[in-house]
Design goal:
The protein has 2 domains: about 20-130, no CATH class; about 140-174. It has 4 helices and 8 strands; from the N terminus they run E-H-E-E-E-E-E-E-E-H-H-H. The protein has helices at about 30-35, 135-140, 145-150, 160-174, and strands at about 20-25, 45-50, 55-65, 70-75, 80-90, 95-100, 110, 115. The strands form 2 sheets. It has a 6-stranded antiparallel beta sheet, covered by helices on one side. Strands 1-8 form a two-stranded antiparallel sheet. Helix 3 packs across helix 4. The longest helix is centred in the last third of the chain and has 16 residues, at about 160-174. About 15% of the residues are buried. The mean pLDDT is about 80.
Length: about 170
C-alpha cells in the first residue's frame, strides 16, 4: 500500500460541473406553467439571457399537448433543441408540484433541474450527464499537504492537522 498522496487519482480528467452548464429550473417556471395548465393560454414563449455567457440565449416555449404539458427548449449558441414532458405530483399540503421528465431515454426520472453541458446537443439530468459540483472537486485538495505536515509532528494525523488549520482560520477571520 502507498502512503498519503500516492496513487493516480489526480491524473484523470475532471468531470464537467453543473456550474459550467446551462441549467433550467422548473421552480422558476411555476407561474407560467400554472397559467397554461389552467387553460388561459395555449402556449407561452419567452427568451432569457444566460448569466456569464455573452450572446447565449435560451428560448423556452411552453405548450399544452392533448394529455400533458411540454416545454420546448432552444439554446441558440449551441443550436440545441429539446422537447421535455412535464409531470405533476401532489404534495401532502395540497397543490401541484411540477417536474421535468429527463429527456434521455434510459433515464425517465422526474427532476427539478435540467442541464446542458458545453458542446452537447441535448439537455439531461445531472445523473445521466455524469455531472458533479465544483465543491466536490475542491474538497480534498489539501489532503497531501496535511499528510506531509502530520509526518513531521509526532502523534499527529492528517485529520488532526486539518482540524487545527481550520480552527486557526476561523479564529483569524472572527
Amino acid at each position: 500500500m502507498g502512503s498519503y498522496g500516492s496513487g493516480r487519482w489526480q491524473w484523470h480528467e475532471k468531470k464537467i460541473t453543473v456550474e459550467q452548464c446551462v441549467s433550467v429550473d422548473i421552480a422558476e417556471l411555476n407561474a407560467e406553467i400554472n397559467e397554461l395548465a389552467q387553460g388561459e393560454f395555449s402556449s407561452v414563449e419567452w427568451t432569457t439571457s444566460l448569466s456569464g455567457a455573452r450572446g447565449r440565449e435560451l428560448q423556452l416555449v411552453l405548450r399544452k399537448g392533448t394529455q400533458s404539458l411540454f416545454l420546448d427548449l432552444y439554446l441558440r449558441a449551441d443550436n440545441a433543441s429539446e422537447t421535455i414532458e412535464l409531470q405533476t405530483t401532489s404534495p401532502h399540503y395540497g397543490g401541484l408540484r411540477w417536474w421535468f421528465m429527463c429527456p434521455i431515454s434510459c433515464c425517465n426520472r422526474r427532476v427539478r433541474k435540467l442541464y446542458h453541458p458545453p458542446g452537447s446537443l441535448s439537455f439531461g439530468c445531472r445523473r445521466c450527464l455524469n455531472l458533479t459540483y465544483t465543491s466536490c472537486q475542491e474538497s480534498h485538495q489539501r489532503d497531501t499537504l496535511y499528510a506531509h505536515i502530520a509526518e513531521q509532528i509526532p502523534g499527529a494525523t492528517p485529520a488532526t492537522v486539518r482540524h487545527a488549520v481550520r480552527r486557526m482560520m476561523r479564529e483569524r477571520s472572527g
